[in-house]
């Protein structure tokens, strides 16, 4: 299954909680596309969660947005 979450404009613990809850419900082979405009969210929240869940991670930057694809 493929799902997407838009975190543009969100900060503090909100992005972490949203991504954590999505990853927790995913099964092997599922992919989550995370979109954010905050590099700190990528470094502080998304990358550590991807490592914790053992995700294959692809990060691209498109203008002012980061697109992070996490596959379990």
From TrEMBL:
Leader peptide range in chain numbering: none
InterPro entries cross-referenced by the UniProt entry: TusA-like (IPR001455), TusA-like_sf (IPR036868)
UPF0033 domain mapped to chain residues: 4-70
Protein name: Oxidoreductase
Residue runs in coiled coils: none
Superkingdom of this protein's organism: Archaea
């Amino acid at each position: 299954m493929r799902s997407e979450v838009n975190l543009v404009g969100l900060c503090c613990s909100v992005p972490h909680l949203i991504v954590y809850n999505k990853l927790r419900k995913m099964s092997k082979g599922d992919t989550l596309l995370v979109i954010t405009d905050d590099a700190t969210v990528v470094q502080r929240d998304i990358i550590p969660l991807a490592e914790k869940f053992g995700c294959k991670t692809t990060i691209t930057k498109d203008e002012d947005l980061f697109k992070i694809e996490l596959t379990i």
